[in-house]
């Protein structure tokens, strides 16, 4: 990421506040596709990464095994709190649609 990019300040703020981790070693891909699991991790971090007590919610989805280990709690939290409403499959590695991201962000004020 170029530090003179229009979004550089926002990325730096999000990283400094623990909402973004990037790819490691200070590398970020702000123009890269955002996956469902990446989006849910960012939203989960907005909630302070609370302890997940119902990770079993993932068991009802055929593709739950495709969720990266670092995203499992975030995806479980998102489903439990209806920030993410999968239709039979989570599709964690797929690009998140604008519609799904808008829905998740719109539900933030309503989540427990």
Attribute tags:
single chain, 112 residues, mainly alpha, 4 helices
List the helices and strands and how they pair.
Layout: H1 8-16, H2 36-46, H3 72-80, H4 98-107
Please give a structural write-up:
- The chain is mostly helical.
- It has helices spanning 8-16, 36-46, 72-80, 98-107.
- The longest helix is centred in the middle third of the chain and has 11 residues, at 36-46.
- It is globular and about 45 Å long.
- The model has no long low-confidence stretch (mean pLDDT 86).
* Strand count: 0
Cα gyration radius (Å): 14 Å
Report the order of strands and helices. Answer: HHHH
Average pLDDT over all residues:
86
The rounded distance between the terminal residues' Cα atoms is 35 Å
Q: Approximately how much helix is present in the residues?
A: 25-40%
Unreliable residue stretches: none
Percent in strands: under 5%
Q: What is the overall shape?
A: globular
User: Class by helix and strand content?
Assistant: mainly alpha
**Major β-sheet, in short?**
none
Query: How many H/I helices?
Result: 4
Characterize this entry briefly.
The protein has 112 residues and is mainly α. It has four helices and no strands.
């Amino acid at each position: 990421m170029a530090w003179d990019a229009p979004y550089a300040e926002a990325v730096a703020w999000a990283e400094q506040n623990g909402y973004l981790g990037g790819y490691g070693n200070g590398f970020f891909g702000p123009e890269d596709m955002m996956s469902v699991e990446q989006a849910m991790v960012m939203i989960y971090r907005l909630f302070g990464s609370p302890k997940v007590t119902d990770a079993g919610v993932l068991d009802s989805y055929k593709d739950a095994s495709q969720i990266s280990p670092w995203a499992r709690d975030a995806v479980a939290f998102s489903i439990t709190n209806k920030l993410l409403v999968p239709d039979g499959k989570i599709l964690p590695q797929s690009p998140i649609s604008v519609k799904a991201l808008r829905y998740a962000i719109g539900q933030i004020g309503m989540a427990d």
